[in-house]
């Protein structure tokens, strides 16, 4: 355990030095940019050095205070971004206080601090993203062991087979526990046959284990509570398989959920009137902004649909369909028609990839999401938001509620033009696909925030520009 702590401390020290150099460089570049734009006289060397060194020091100290250099930091990327914003904002406030109150003669241009702060936030977010994504320095990567080797534990083997799926941890192995369903359990992973008794803590220390994941099939009478309590007191993290999968994969494993987990788990924040009003205001503003840029494309799309078959059949270029919205309320969604006018003459059907009912124009507008643009009207009406679970048809919802546990919980938030599930799961058209998408939808419902919405919007723009996914 001591060796592991030394390794983590060394990595954290390297990270502090790298980010310190990055912050200092950007603090210097910010002054150069200001001089280029404002054409003001350059500050003295001492004046510039003081601002660069002090601001770098304040950002690093603030980052330490919010835990950004904690060796065992187990945080989602959104959480890391939030901490970066907090530490830079705190540094900005202290820096502004010092240079405007105590050391006025050393203050730089009024726009220096905002520019430096913006550059530093952007650079730190990108640096942390790529260092986490590529596994640089091994930061935040912990050695863990899974208590259980049955059906619940096998979710790790099935869903996290690739090396990139395990970039945040080093899995030592699985410990079989009495009551595990071994027939449906771990098949190819390493099994460790060790008794979870008074000597278990010695095993953890000898193998530098920093986290224990509870994934046994039968908890009653099989979990060594006193041993796990002792591990927790000694600084070893003990987490449930649901929390582990949520943290590492960005989804909630619906088929493993039990009611007490939902009751005691963080998240699932309730809505309130003020938040709803603010949310509508932001969404309406974004809808008008997008509309001001996309209306020419909408006109061209409508014309192409009309020329392809609208002129011949007299069918509308728009397609209205009943969908299930917030709290199960029905509303009419509006889209550009991408299928033949007689596409549902035999009743409602799942849309599939390569659907023969889709027209030539429809294939193109679906690829680049142009068919979704009329839904800006649904956003302005308050029936939808930009980000949220995609609204489903009532005929399918009625079927899915009966077959998928907790499916109705996705209606606790407004449906959206883009969603977490659409970014993380390919096009699907079955009950099984709906189950997989629900795992991401519930993650969004549980963790909905402005920061997550921004992340989804940015990734959605990438999908639209490069024609990926659906």
From TrEMBL:
GO MF terms held by the record: phosphotransferase activity, for other substituted phosphate groups
Which Gene3D superfamilies is this protein grouped with?
A: NAD(P)-binding Rossmann-like Domain (3.40.50.720)
Keywords per UniProt: Membrane, Transferase, Transmembrane, Transmembrane helix
Domain Bacterial sugar transferase: from-to ranges:
283-465
According to its UniProt record, where is this protein located? Answer: Membrane
Q: Which GO terms describe its cellular component?
A: membrane
- Transmembrane segment boundaries: 12-36, 48-69, 81-104, 110-130, 284-307
Matching InterPro entries: Bact_transf (IPR003362), EPS_sugar_tfrase (IPR017475), Sugar_tfrase_EpsB_2 (IPR017464)
Q: How does it sit in the membrane?
A: Multi-pass membrane protein
One Pfam family here: Bac_transf
UniProt lists the family membership as follows: Belongs to the bacterial sugar transferase family.
Q: What is this protein called?
A: Sugar transferase
Originating species: Bowmanella pacifica
UniProt lineage: Bacteria, Pseudomonadati, Pseudomonadota, Gammaproteobacteria, Alteromonadales
């Amino acid at each position: 355990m001591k060796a592991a702590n030394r390794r983590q401390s060394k990595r954290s020290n390297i990270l502090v030095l790298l980010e310190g150099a990055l912050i200092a460089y950007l603090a210097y570049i910010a002054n150069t940019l200001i001089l280029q734009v404002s054409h003001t006289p350059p500050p003295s060397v001492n004046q510039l050095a003081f601002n660069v060194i002090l601001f770098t020091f304040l950002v690093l100290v603030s980052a330490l205070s919010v835990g950004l250099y904690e060796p065992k930091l187990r945080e989602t990327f959104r959480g890391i971004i939030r901490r970066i914003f907090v530490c830079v904002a705190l540094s900005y406030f202290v820096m502004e206080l010092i240079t405007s109150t105590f050391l006025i003669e050393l203050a730089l241009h009024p726009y220096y601090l905002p520019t430096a702060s913006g550059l530093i936030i952007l650079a730190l977010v990108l640096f942390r993203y790529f260092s986490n994504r590529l596994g640089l320095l091994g930061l935040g990567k912990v050695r863990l062991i899974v208590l259980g080797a049955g059906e619940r534990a096998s979710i790790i083997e099935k869903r996290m087979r690739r090396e990139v799926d395990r970039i945040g941890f080093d899995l030592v192995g699985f410990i079989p526990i009495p009551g595990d369903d071994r027939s449906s359990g771990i098949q190819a992973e390493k099994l460790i046959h060790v008794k979870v008794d008074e000597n278990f803590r010695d095993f953890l220390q000898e193998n530098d284990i920093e986290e224990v994941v509870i994934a046994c099939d039968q908890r009653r009478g099989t979990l060594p509570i006193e041993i796990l309590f002792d591990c927790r007191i000694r600084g070893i993290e003990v987490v449930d398989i649901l929390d582990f999968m949520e943290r590492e994969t960005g989804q909630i494993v619906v088929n493993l959920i039990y009611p007490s987990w939902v009751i005691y788990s963080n998240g699932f924040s309730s809505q309130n009137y003020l938040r709803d009003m603010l949310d509508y205001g932001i969404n309406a503003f974004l809808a008008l902004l997008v509309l001001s840029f996309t209306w020419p494309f909408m006109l061209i799309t409508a014309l192409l649909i009309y020329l392809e078959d609208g002129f011949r059949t007299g069918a509308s270029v728009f397609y209205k369909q009943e969908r299930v919205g917030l709290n199960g309320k029905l509303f009419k969604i509006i889209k550009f028609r991408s299928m033949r006018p007689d596409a549902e003459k035999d009743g409602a059907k799942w849309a599939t990839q390569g659907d023969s009912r889709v027209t030539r124009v429809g294939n193109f507008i679906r690829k680049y999401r142009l068919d979704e643009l009329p839904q800006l009207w649904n956003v302005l009406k308050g029936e939808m938001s930009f980000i949220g679970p995609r609204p489903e048809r009532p005929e399918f919802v009625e079927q899915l509620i009966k077959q998928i546990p907790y499916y109705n919980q996705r209606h606790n938030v407004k449906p959206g033009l883009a969603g977490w599930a659409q970014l993380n799961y390919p096009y699907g058209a079955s009950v099984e696909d709906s189950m997989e998408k629900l795992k991401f939808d519930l993650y969004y419902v549980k963790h909905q925030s402005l920061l997550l919405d921004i992340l989804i919007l940015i990734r959605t723009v990438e999908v639209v520009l490069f024609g990926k996914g659906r």
